[in-house]
Design goal:
This protein is an all-alpha fold. The protein contains 2 helices and no strands. Helix content is about 90%, strand content about 0%.
Length: about 80
């Protein structure tokens, strides 16, 4: 794997780790909002929406990492 491709892969992995951290935070916030005695509908909606966005970004990033890996193996 060339240096620039390896750097790109490492950048993707760092972004993936950041997304994983965000997903954990928002899953905790969602759980907290849903288990409170008085549910906060706005917090629940916001957390679900952001989780959906982050999980979609995560899937796309994983696909990009796999594609990059395949490309590098073919060379």
């Amino acid at each position: 794997m060339s240096k620039s491709l390896e750097e790109l892969r490492n950048d993707y992995i760092k972004e993936l780790e950041k997304l994983d951290e965000k997903i954990i935070v928002y899953r905790c916030r969602l759980h907290r909002a849903m288990t409170n005695r008085i549910r906060n509908a706005d917090e629940i909606f916001t957390c679900r929406r952001l989780l959906s966005v982050f999980e979609n970004e995560r899937s796309e990033l994983i696909s990009s990492i796999r594609d990059l890996q395949k490309y590098c193996e073919e060379e």
